[in-house]
Amino acid sequence: MKRFLLDTFLKEQEIPDSADASAKKIYLLDTGEFAKSAEGVPHKKKVLQDMNVVRYCKAELYGSCILGIIDVPFFRADPCASPQKTLTKNLHFGFFMEQDTLYFIGESEKILPVFHRMKENRFSPSLSLPGFFCILFNTLFENDAAYLQNLEERLSELEDSHGRRTARLSQTGLSLPQESHAFGRLL
């Protein structure tokens, strides 16, 4: 389990501690740790149940708390010099947020590097946990637009080359097998 305090900076803090009761606390834990250590957390059973069955994004509001599941493609930086990203698999975690506490439950080893990068940022002292949650998502997806644009350009090139090849074959009186015409439907 990792714990961070949010003030003007995101600070990692050892557990147990003597943190101010009004401090904004963020926990990163796996499902087993959450099940054992989140005593008195309302709807804990619902979060744990959803972690096992839900494979999409969802959020639910229950009175003074919000809980949900995030399941998104997870990219790792390519070790080569190019700025490409490589899809490894999905990032799957649950979250539970109250007034001054935010839990991230699940694959903490994947999200921890994002938290370490965010420790370098300076935040407004009035930043709320929902605001931090939005900043976290922005950090997770900050380079995805460029990646998707690059992917779109590569797909366009592939479609163009397929179209040119089909046109050349039809000029010679030959045609591609029927299943290769389904190529466009697969994209």
Structure, explained:
The protein has 187 residues and is α+β, with helices and mostly antiparallel strands. 41% of the residues lie in helices and 28% in strands. It contains seven helices and seven strands. It has a seven-stranded mixed sheet, sandwiched between helices. The longest helix is centred in the last third of the chain and has 28 residues. The two termini are 42 Å apart. About 3% of the residues have low confidence.
Give the CA-CA distance, first to last residue: 42 Å
| Proportion of residues in extended strands | 25-35%
What's the oligomerization state?
single chain
Helical amount: 40-55%
Briefly note the structural class of the backbone. alpha+beta
Instruction: Figure out the total of helices.
Output: 7
Tell me the strand order in the biggest sheet: 2-1-3-7-6-5-4
Rounded mean pLDDT is 80
Order of helices and strands: EEEHHEEEEHHHHH
The best one-word shape is elongated
Low-confidence stretches: 78-83
Number of strands: 7
Radius of gyration: 23 Å
Largest sheet: 7 strands, mixed
Provide tags for this entry.
187 residues, alpha+beta, single chain, elongated
Concise description?
The chain is α+β, with helices and mostly antiparallel strands and 187 residues long.
In terms of topology, how is this protein built?
Layout: E1 2-6, E2 10-13, E3 24-29, H1 31-37, H2 44-53, E4 58-62, E5 65-77, E6 85-97, E7 101-106, H3 108-118, H4 129-140, H5 144-171, H6 178-181, H7 183-186
Parallel strand pairs: 3-7
Antiparallel strand pairs: 1-2, 1-3, 4-5, 5-6, 6-7
